[in-house]
Design goal:
The complex is a heterodimer of chains A (57) and B (130).
Chain A: H1 4-23, H2 27-51
Chain B: H1 2-9, H2 13-23, H3 27-31, H4 35-54, H5 67-77, H6 81-88, H7 101-126
The chains are: A mainly alpha (57), B mainly alpha (130).
Chain lengths: 57, 130
């Protein structure tokens, strides 16, 4: 697997899963929190990725 | 839960529990009877570590002369037994030319750091902070 986006999704999924399990106790809260963390990871990565076009090193 | 956890662990058992939790991801939660959490942590963290190795990541050496490498090595070693097994079998030599090298290192390092987070979670649970 060499797709950076798929790897990003995979990484975000696992980290969000662990965060959700550790930081919430109720299954419904875990799903909600995990989804929020996952979305935040992906969204911030895409935004930062686009910002790196005009402000590349 | 606080009294139950404290009773299960006993006096000096907290250190043993923390060590077990470090060596085997999720073991601390399993020990405390939180089976679902423990199994999810075990599967998720070892899978992350395995993906990191499969994508040609590197288990960094302990080199005090290079602080960032040293920090990465500590994060890798925080994975416990999977790290020791990978090290014993010479896995994790790393291929910097591979397209997935940086991502692989992110997986390896994050898995170790998340395992440290699980140890702290177990510690806090036993002390009644959670």
């Amino acid at each position: 697997m060499t797709s950076h986006f798929l790897l990003l999704l995979l990484f975000s999924f696992f980290v969000a899963l662990v965060f959700a399990v550790l930081m919430r106790n109720e299954p419904r809260d875990q799903v909600r929190f995990g989804a929020m963390v996952f979305g935040a990871f992906v969204l911030s990565a895409v935004v930062i990725g686009w910002l790196m076009y005009p402000f590349s090193l | 839960m606080r009294a139950d956890a404290a009773r299960q662990v006993g006096g000096g058992g907290l250190v043993v529990l923390a060590l077990a939790s470090w060596l085997v991801p999720g073991a601390g939660h399993l020990w405390l009877g939180r089976r679902t959490k423990g199994i999810i942590l075990l599967v998720a963290l070892t899978t992350m570590f395995g993906i990191g190795l499969a994508l040609h990541g590197r288990l960094f050496p302990f080199e005090a002369s290079q602080p960032l490498v040293l920090l990465a090595a500590i994060a890798d070693a925080a994975m416990g037994a999977p790290y020791a097994i990978a090290w014993a079998f010479n896995l994790g030599e790393g291929q910097p030319a591979a397209l997935t090298y940086e991502y692989a290192n992110a997986f390896l390092i994050a898995a170790g750091l998340l395992n440290m987070l699980t140890v702290l979670d177990v510690y806090d649970t036993v002390l009644g902070r959670k």
